[in-house]
Every structure is written in structure tokens, then in C-alpha cells.
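Record DUF1460 domain-containing protein, 290 aa.
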Amino acid sequence: MIKLFTTLFLLVLSLVVQAQDTTSSDFRSLTLTTGKTSAETAILIGKQFMGKPYVPYTLDQTPTEQLVINFREFDCTTYLESVLALTLALHDVGHKPGTSLLEQAFRNYLTRFRYRNGRIDGYASRLHYFSDWLRDNERKGLITDVSNELPGKITVAKPVSFMTSAMYKYPQLRDPNTFKQVALTEASLSQQSFSFIPVKNIRQAEAQLQDGDIVMLLAARPGLDMRHVGLAVRQPNGRMHLMHASSDQSAVVISPYPISDYVLLHKRLSGIRVARLRSNTVPAVAVGGK
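=>
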């Protein structure tokens, strides 16, 4: 039994190492071009991944919590985090766009976006709830919640309990300490009031969205804060659509419908929150290439 466990552990470890070893080659396969602003750069980078498959739970495949980098497949959150981290990393390297320098900057930003206070400290340190993600990354100065500035917004508080109420979905919560930490996070989020734009007002607010805005789609079900996320991108029809890793279409796509129509068509959604990546002017530079 011990020998079998050791063999399985070494196999998992080997797969993790192999995955980490492909990161540099993944970077070299990208062609990253900056826009005039961080938001414009995010749109350009986001389009690099169009057509990549939607795959859930890619962050839960290792026995211990560690930074997972995967440009081959995404869920909605890992897609957003990868695009934003690449955007800010590309801004930071500026006129020194070496692959190793960019990779290290990207790793740093991805860790900051994904983990509370930018530190990996077990499963509970990952920002699982998107309202927690928004709050923590605004505190870090990486993004700004602009929901309160949009027309039609209302302010509410919503109790959050989905993870601890559905433990069968999260095996890591079997650890009592991890469960306690997640429960404390839920309690904190439940006491937090926030502004959002309900379904009936999204068409009005959509006119004030900007390219590259982070659009978070609220869940209608009790106990869950947000169900989905993507980037706003203006289409030739003049309307804002959602660029996202779509479970419905099993790939990274731009939604065929404007954001207000998209939310109306998905009855499990109750509205949106909107944030913006920190405002930076980015020097024009191209990195990498196939």
C-alpha cells in the first residue's frame, strides 16, 4: 500500500513538474502587443486565446496549493486572471521584453490577482468568491470597482455560504482549519454591502461601459455571489459584448449578444458588477511570436 501511494505521488509530482517546465515555451508561443492603455492591451491579449477550450477545475489538480499557469485551457476566472496578469506584466517590462523577465513579472501578478494579499498560503488563501477577489484586488490597487458610478445601480448585501453548504464540491474543505477559514471569509462577505446593476437596468448602464472593463455576472441563487466573469469588448454594432471563457460554448469566445441581452437570456443571473484595471499608459512593444 505504501509503495502504491509512493508511486502515485511520484507520478503526480512528475506531471506537475512537466506542466511547470512547459511555461517558458508557452510564453514563446504568444505574440503580445500593447495598446495605448492597459485596458486596450487586455483586449489585444484576450483575443490571443480565442478558441481555447473551456475546462473547469484546472487549479485543483495538484495535491498542495501552488501557482498553476495554463495557457492551453481556461475557465472564466483563470482566463481573466491570465489576461490581466499578462497585461500588467507586459506594462512593467516596458522596453525590456525578455521572455524570462516577462514570465517572472507574469508569475508575480498572477499570484497577486489569485491569492489573498498576494500570498499562497493553502487552499483558503485562494480568492474563491469573486466578491472577495474584487475586494482584495481593489485593496492592492490593481483594479477599481466602478459599479457605483454606473446608472441604474442599487446597493444591497447578500449572505454568502455556497462553498461551506456544498462541501461535496470542495474536497479540500474536509480539513477543519480550511473549512473554518473559508467560513470566516463567507461571514465577512455576507456583511459587506455593494453596488450592482440589476438585470432591468443593464441596457442603460451598458452605454457607459468601456473596452476592457471587467464584467462580473451576479448569481440569482441564494448563497452565491457571482456566477461568471469576462471582459467588455465593443463590437462593430457599437454595443458591448462579453469576451470570456464560456461553458455554454466550451471555448473562449466573444458572446454573440450584447451584455444586457446575454444576462437576460441566462435566468440564473441577476445583474452585473463592473471593475476597471488600473489606468496606465503603456509604451508600445511587441513580445514573442510563433
